[in-house]
Amino acid sequence: MALFVHKYGGTSVGKIQRIKNVAENIIKARQRGDDLVVVVSAMSGETNRLVALAHELQEQPDPRELDVLLSTGEQVTIALLCMALHQRGCPACSYTGGQVKIITDRAHTKARIVNIDTDRIRGDLSEGKVVVVAGFQGITEDGHITTLGRGGSDTTAVALAAALKADECLIYTDVDGVYTTDPRVEPKARRLDRITFEEMLEMASLGSKVLQIRSVEFAGKYNVPLRVLSSFVEGPGTLISYEEESVEQPLISGIAFNRDEAKLTIMGVPDRPGIASRILGPIAGANIEVDMIVQNVGEDGTTDFTFTVHRNEYKKALEILRSVHTELQAREIAGDDTIVKVSLVGVGMRSHAGIAAKMFEALAKEAINIQMISTSEIKISVVLDEKYLELAVRCLHKAFDLEKPRDAVT
Ligand code: ASP
Ligand code: MG
User: Fold this and answer.
1) 171 in ligand 1 pocket by Cβ < 6 Å?
2) pTM
3) In the predicted model, is pLDDT for residue 6 greater than 90?
4) N or C: which end of the chain has fewer CB within 10 A?
5) Is any ligand 1 atom within 6 A of the Cβ of residue 97?
6) 409, 7, 407, 347: which is closest to 168 by C-alpha?
7) Which fold has domain 3-241?
8) What is the pLDDT of residues 177-203, one digit of tens each?
């Protein structure tokens, strides 16, 4: 008998009628003879509502108390879903994270799962019950409630699937899969039949918000096949798994982009050892994450140094540079917080030359200026003026034939 973990996101359980539809979907899956463990999020908007309540009282509430508060959202939906299942005559039992012993570390509001005790779940499954578990939460060894960070129900589902050695983890959400790019930017974007963990990680960290990044890391680490699919329309969704040797990989799987970028340049610094660390040391010291870094070839003993940060950190980073400006003997400091990053992602890149050239040619044809470039084994990213974002995504989508369906590879 197969075992599946289903996860239903906030919009899928946002109203009683939707909870009834979820119950229907679960019953259908059970009729195929599968064992089911179901993870749910809080009703859509609920976690935000709770966060706002807390902030009405305190600007920085105690993280422990915040977790006690936030974990209630999911406790509501597990109970309601079980009632909907009971009403349809389906045996089901709900559990909070603590009750099924999802043990986490003590990092309140961003805890990590360290262990899951599956005895209770297995017991219920063997009695023919559907087990419904609250997402997003766990408990510390000494009994304090924790939460796993926003979007953490995905991670609960994957962790349970890994612990139970489930056949697949199905993430039901409000989109019907992972797309070649954001359909709001390129209406010709297509749903992918499958994508690898590595590619999905790149897509997710670049702003494609279908899954919590941590859940994808977890799924890759424990090799849990993940499927993203819609709880509103039927369809196969997108399977996220390891690359299959036998299947020829497409060159490019998708185009990801990030609007929240800013860049800083420090010009005319002495070209000698230690400069990079003296620029980036204070930036790291202020807990600012640096993404791309470019240093030019030196000329006349000086060089220019450019890096990108999240737009929210731009002002802070600029202040830091100004404060080290004289010490570094820099000529000038410049910044721009109207830039974006656009990336091609695809494991097929590994075995093919010329992808970057083709990318730059497509951008050149549209007279889009590239400000920075960075590459990894499965990704090429460019920094552009934000006004070119839509144009760049669309011209690349076309240049790499992403609108055309690939041969089915499932
Ligand atoms: N309810 C939590 C949130 O909104 C967890 C989740 O939905 O995955 O972040
Ligand atoms: Mg979510």
Assistant:
1) no
2) 0.87
3) yes
4) N
5) no
6) 7
7) Carbamate kinase (3.40.1160)
8) 999 999 999 999 999 999 999 999 998
Question: What average pLDDT does range 118-137 have in this prediction?
Answer: 97
Residue 299 has pLDDT above 90, yes or no: no
pLDDT band of 245, cuts 50, 70, 90: low
Ligand 1 contact, 110 CB (< 6 A): no
Which ligand 1 atom sits nearest the alpha carbon of residue 151?
8
Largest CA distance in the chain: 81
How sure is the predictor about 409, in pLDDT bands with cuts at 50, 70 and 90?
A: very low
**Closest C-alpha to ligand 1, atom 5:** 151
* Mean confidence (pLDDT) of the chain: 93
CATH architecture of the domain covering 248-401: 2-Layer Sandwich (3.30)
Quote the pLDDT of residue 407: 53
Beta-bridge partners for 227:
170, 239
User: Which-ligand-closest: CA of 228?
Assistant: 2
For residue 138, how many other CB atoms are within 10 A of its CB?
Answer: 31
Domain ranges of the chain: 3-241, 248-401
Q: What percent of the chain has pLDDT over 70?
A: 97
Atom of ligand 1 minimally distant from the CA of 149: 9
